[in-house]
Write a structure and sequence with these properties.
The longest helix is centred in the N-terminal third of the chain and has 48 residues. About 45% of the residues are buried. The chain starts with a strand and ends with a helix. Helix 5 packs antiparallel against helix 7, helix 7 runs antiparallel to helix 8 and helix 9 packs across helix 16. The chain is an all-alpha fold. About 70% of the residues lie in helices and about 0% in strands. It has 26 helices and 2 strands.
């Protein structure tokens, strides 16, 4: 029986536009490095650097991600034959994201919670949108084409970094080491300087992410889907060149995968291969296998926890580090059991509960279920587990696509998605406002984007064209591709049991889009309509109003504040720190969700400009009030007070005590506090702090780089003897 056209009405253009926009946004977000705040303070005479995508860029992309959902609702309101799907997995993920969205009310860092939960909520919306839009084998192939194109882009970017950028970085560092350390305020041989130099020389390949493990997990995910496409080509007896090209690309990607240093990626491809090989035979035993997997998961988790409790460690060192994170996370959960500490607020709370041997100051517990439980409480953890269980069931139903997708032409489909995706990337990641503008750098970045566009178009073409002699959209069933997507999802979740890849924006949106596409491909076309046309019209109107309200009331103020902060950075570089301090203060005061970082940077700029200490102190107090769980702000306040001719001794003591209540294992904080107490003549308490510093230092692993050098250790022992 010939499948019926999916889009017979005049309103079909709405969902076609929605699909192209969603696909382009996936590409755009997957090829930018997105952050929340500038990681380094700008200092006078610092060189101009290009700004990466920040909070504003991410929020604007979140707004754009909601547009396909609005277009889908409009299509339903206009087209009586168009049906929407709303499954339990949709509801669970959206409720979980909404819980994250309201968590700023009880978060310490409200700004981080608000911005990152907006990303999570827009990903949940994308999950629903993709499950409505991917209702044909052709569109499933297009999603696979995006995955293969991204695999080619990540591979090319990694090769460029290893062969061109890394040698240049090492040469520059060797020639300018002292100047770079001075710009950052680091002493040669200090922990920060040593770690920074190690990262440069090691050349960790991170791609468009903040962690090499995320790049490793993404390469495995994308390569698994690409391998399924190659299998499908072989099973369909297509031209051998198609499958050969895909296989060669996968092999080349292992070069980049190796340099990520991701150990998990050495195991998960084997898991993916096993799933692909066994899936066809398991189709008739779906319910039994599903129950067996749940039982195995619980048993495996219990055994892992038992091993950790008995031995105080796990099998290998990297897993032992994770075990320490989870032990600390359990303590946080016991203190905040019902609704957690707030989305993206794990980091500072972890400092107060981490084991003495756990030296890392992590921001994520490296397990997506643990993160949901700690940051959103038992409620969030239960919702995450429920979503995972329900999605696994819904995504393995036997129903398959029964419709066809219509595009103007295959070439138009490929080019429109590729070009729009790279346009989003260029606008989001190329800093055309850098002062002074580096024309050579801009040209190089644009040239890279042209290369990426070529690779994306190539990847799409390899997936969706029927043959080289017949360049039309391939509408044939592709069950092996669907199986490989399920395998890719499974191994990506395995990665995220010990890594934090899932919540990096680029990785999260690719993963969620694949999940939505798989769910859409499983949609039964005989299902009843969930929303009537009247309800869909009302929902479309409400969504549009909310979209505008969020844009005006939430995103716009953050964009204005971020622009003021960027101008302040340029003013600091040019020696106008006094003006920069005013701009940063205005940026802080303009937000109704406070960003403590602006107040902190304003205080630093005031110190650069030698303004009265009272003004800098007031801004540091504002930063502490906005984010009381940040030890850095308390330390900066104490340091500022110590610089005064007659410091307020009690204020210094209070700030150090507050900082150590947040991070009691910080050896350097105990030393600074001891020095301050010795200066104030409190010899007994100074000795106690010096002894505490040595105690926590001794509890660190013998190979830990944060351990005090032997000469400094002996100097502290001498201080203790002299004070006693």
């Amino acid at each position: 029986m010939r499948p019926a056209p999916e889009q017979p009405s005049r309103a079909a253009g709405l969902t076609q536009t929605a699909f192209v926009l969603a696909a382009a946004l996936i590409i755009g977000r997957a090829t930018i490095v997105q952050g929340l705040r500038d990681p380094d303070l700008v200092r006078p005479d610092s060189p101009a650097i290009a700004h990466t995508a920040g909070a504003t860029t991410g929020l604007v992309l979140d707004l754009l991600t909601a547009v396909p959902a609005i277009l889908i609702l409009a299509r339903r309101a206009l087209d009586a034959d168009y049906r929407l799907r709303l499954g339990a997995s949709h509801v669970l993920l959206i409720v979980l994201a909404l819980l994250a969205a309201i968590s700023p009310f009880w978060s310490s860092d409200k700004f981080a919670a608000a911005v990152t939960s907006a990303h999570f909520l827009s990903a949940a919306v994308l999950f629903w949108s993709m499950s409505q839009l991917v209702r044909s084998w052709t569109r499933l192939r297009i999603v696979a084409g995006i995955c293969f194109g991204l695999l080619l882009v990540y591979t090319a970017q990694g090769i460029i970094y290893r062969t061109v950028d890394l040698p240049d970085n090492v040469r520059y560092w060797e020639a300018n080491r002292d100047a770079e350390l001075a710009l950052r305020g680091w002493e040669p041989g200090s922990f920060q300087a040593t770690q920074f130099e190690r990262r440069i020389r090691a050349g960790e390949t991170v791609g468009f992410f903040t962690s090499p493990n995320t790049l490793g997990a993404m390469i495995v995910l994308l390569a698994t889907i690409s391998a399924g496409a190659a299998i499908q080509r072989i099973r369909d007896r297509d031209e051998p060149g198609w499958a050969a090209a895909i296989i060669v690309a996968i092999i080349v990607s292992t070069y980049v995968l190796y340099f990520t240093g991701c150990r998990t990626a050495a195991v998960t491809p084997l898991i993916a291969a096993s799933i692909i090989a066994l899936a066809p035979r398991a189709a008739h035993h779906r319910k039994g296998i599903y129950i067996a997997c749940i039982i195995a998961t619980f048993v495996g988790t219990a055994m892992l926890i038992g091993h950790g409790l008995f031995h105080g460690s796990l099998i290998v060192q990297s897993l032992t580090y994770r075990w320490r994170y989870w032990v600390g996370a359990k303590k946080i959960l016991s203190q905040h059991p019902f609704f957690g500490v707030g989305w993206s607020n794990f980091g500072n709370y972890y400092l107060g509960v981490r084991l003495p041997a756990a030296s890392e100051e992590i921001k994520d517990p490296h397990n997506f279920v643990v993160r949901a439980a700690v940051e959103l409480g038992i409620t969030g953890g239960a919702l995450m587990l429920a979503w995972l269980a329900r999605f696994c069931w819904e995504s393995t139903t036997p129903a398959t696509p029964q419709t066809r997708s219509r595009f103007i032409s295959p070439t138009a489909a490929v080019l429109s998605i590729g070009v729009l995706g790279l346009m989003i990337n260029v606008v989001s990641s190329v800093d055309f406002l850098m002062q002074p503008l580096d024309i050579a750098w801009v040209f190089l970045e644009l040239f890279k984007r042209l290369l990426f566009l070529f690779l994306l178009v190539l990847g799409l073409a390899a997936m969706i064209f029927r043959s080289s002699t017949e360049p039309r959209l391939d509408e044939r069933p592709c069950p092996w591709l669907l199986i490989s997507m399920l395998a890719g999802i499974a191994v990506f979740l395995v990665h995220n049991l010990i890594d934090f890849s899932l919540f990096e924006p680029g990785a999260m949106f690719v993963f969620i889009a694949i999940c939505g596409a798989v769910l859409g491909a499983r949609t039964d076309r005989t299902e009843r309509a969930i929303f009537s046309r009247a309800i869909a019209a009302a929902a479309c109107a409400v969504a549009t109003i909310l979209w505008m309200a969020v844009g005006i009331g939430f995103v716009a103020p953050i964009a204005v504040a971020e622009q003021r902060a960027a101008q302040a950075d340029n003013q600091i570089r040019s020696g106008r720190a006094d003006q920069a301090s005013i701009g940063l203060q205005e940026a802080f005061q303009s937000l109704w969700i406070p960003n403590a970082d602006y107040a902190y940077r304003s205080a630093v700029a005031m110190q650069y400009a030698n303004l009265p200490a009272e003004k800098a102190a007031a801004m540091l107090d504002a930063a502490i009030a906005a984010d009381p769980m940040s030890p850095a702000y308390h330390r900066a306040r104490a340091t500022l007070e110590l610089r005064q001719t007659t410091p307020n001794e009690q204020r210094v003591i209070d700030e150090f005590q507050q900082m150590l209540s947040i991070d009691p294992n910080d050896v350097s904080a105990h030393l600074d506090f001891a020095d301050a107490l010795a200066r104030f003549g409190d010899r007994q308490r100074a000795v106690e702090q010096y002894q505490a510093a040595l105690k926590y230092n001794d509890l660190l692993d013998p190979t830990e780089i944060k351990r005090l050098p032997s000469d400094k250790y002996k100097a502290i022992e001498e201080k203790i003897r002299s004070l006693q």
